[in-house]
């Protein structure tokens, strides 16, 4: 598929997600990075968003719970270019009932070439980057060109 450029703004739209076993770790990470995160627009799946808002006081747009469709909501926002970064502390050692949704979310983040952090180390590397505070051009699928060829 052909590529085009999408500019990720300096004030990013960041999705925060965590499996149940990883929620305490994400809360700790968000508290440690609160100053950086509050300069951006934050989204989260339902339960995670509620916990993070309560524990940190950050303004977070909560979607529905991941197993109830929140992962798919985030995937749709990513494909629409409305999410710029995904922080998803997922538990690779425990299967979850909505595992296909989790894989689909990680897949769509890769398709649309957005930065993804899946644990504390990758989140640290990502958020320590000076690119988090700048506009950044990324290559994304040129869906318009794709559709034009199909008609």
Automatic annotation (TrEMBL):
Cellular component terms per the entry's GO annotation: cytosol
Protein name: Methylglyoxal synthase
Top enzyme category: lyase
EC id: 4.2.3.3
Classification of source organism: Bacteria, Pseudomonadati, Pseudomonadota, Gammaproteobacteria, Vibrionales
Source organism per UniProt: Vibrio hepatarius
Pfam families: MGS
Gene Ontology MF annotations: methylglyoxal synthase activity
Positions of the catalytic residues: 71 (proton donor/acceptor)
Organism domain of life: Bacteria
Family assignment from sequence similarity: Belongs to the methylglyoxal synthase family.
Cited Gene3D superfamilies: Methylglyoxal synthase-like domain
Catalysed conversion reaction: dihydroxyacetone phosphate = methylglyoxal + phosphate
Keyword terms: Lyase
InterPro entries from the UniProt entry: Methylgl_synth, Methylglyoxal_synth_AS, MGS-like_dom, MGS-like_dom_sf
Positions of substrate binding: 19, 23, 45-48, 65-66, 98
Domain (MGS-like): residue spans on this chain: 6-151
Any one Gene Ontology BP term: methylglyoxal biosynthetic process
PROSITE patterns per UniProt: METHYLGLYOXAL_SYNTH, MGS
